Amino acid sequence: MGAHARYAAIALVAILSAAASAEAAELVILTNQGATPGVRELAAAFSRANGHRVTVLQETGAALERRINSGPADLITSNPEPIADLVKQGRIVAGTVTPFVLAGLGVSVRAGAPKPDISTVETYKAALLAAKSIGYSYGCSGTHAADGIAQLGLTEQLKAKTVRTGNGPVTDYLAKGDLEIGIQQTNIMVGVPGTDYVGPVPGFLNSPCPSSVALLAVSKEPEAARSMIKFMISPEAAPLLRKTHVEPVTP
Question: What is the CATH number of domain 3-101+211-248?
Fold first, then answer.
């Protein structure tokens, strides 16, 4: 190859690199706790396939509000009710709300503790009655856990030994020994140090928590963000989500 050809080849590589750099976006996804493991898995795959840099943040409180109002942030995942509120407030782009995942409920205990039999509705009921303490959150999973307990007619019987956890996953409380049984989404319980996953909440009592994704009005990269939404409900995304113990929602 002559000098002129070498310079031409180098120039072409530089042009292509510049084009790829120009096309690569930096996306920020704000996630709810129950969707975070799956979104992280999808973000990594999307980044590998498209060259976009994707940051997944699980913000809460004032930090979350600042991101939603002022950015930098492009997408948000949450349960349907908070998403609907953001649509009404004009902070989500109309028509972009897309359900993408269902997270079923599970039960965990402290590491090394005996695992109760929860294979049927009746054995689950017996395990709750036998437990010295039970914990679940104030979020979607906590609401559904409480609804299930009410369906069993145990609300009053379990009231004195039920703890509603605040910030952080229920497994944090289990690991410290503050609870005997914890109930939350399976995908944020499996494999947590200091705890042992027992299994899914049985039968009709296992009402999964849905999460949707939507484009934020403050997004500076709406085109790349819309591509991410399409990827999150694609056939390629389904096995990645299932790796994190959730079920994909198909369009």
Answer: 3.40.190.10
Choose among 132, 97, 115, 131: nearest CA to 189: 115
Instruction: Please state which of the ranges 6-10, 22-26, 29-33, 94-98 shows the lowest mean pLDDT.
Output: 6-10
- DSSP conformation letters of 22-38: HH--EEEEE--GGGHHH
Task: Report whether pLDDT(11) > 90.
Answer: no
Number of H helices, E strands in the chain: 10, 11
Tell me which amino acid residue 157 is: Q
Q: Tell me the Ramachandran region of residue 135: left when phi exceeds 0, alpha when psi lies from -120 to 50, beta otherwise.
A: beta
Per DSSP, the three-state class of 91 is coil
Where is 149: in which H helix or E strand? helix 140-151
Q: How far is CA 122 from the centre of its chain?
A: 30
Q: What's the average model confidence in pLDDT over 13-17? A: 38
Q: What is the pTM of this model?
A: 0.82
Joined tokens for residue 132? 């010295």
| Domain 105-205 in this protein, CATH class | alpha beta
Rounded to whole angstroms, how far apart are CA atoms 18 and 88?
A: 40
Residues of CATH 3.40.190.10 domain(s) within the chain? 3-101+211-248, 105-205
pLDDT tens, 47-100? 999 899 999 999 888 999 999 999 999 999 999 999 999 999 999 999 999 999
Burial bucket for residue 4 (CB in 10 Å: 0-12, 13-18, 19+):
exposed
Cα–Cα distance between 40 and 153 in angstroms, integer? 38
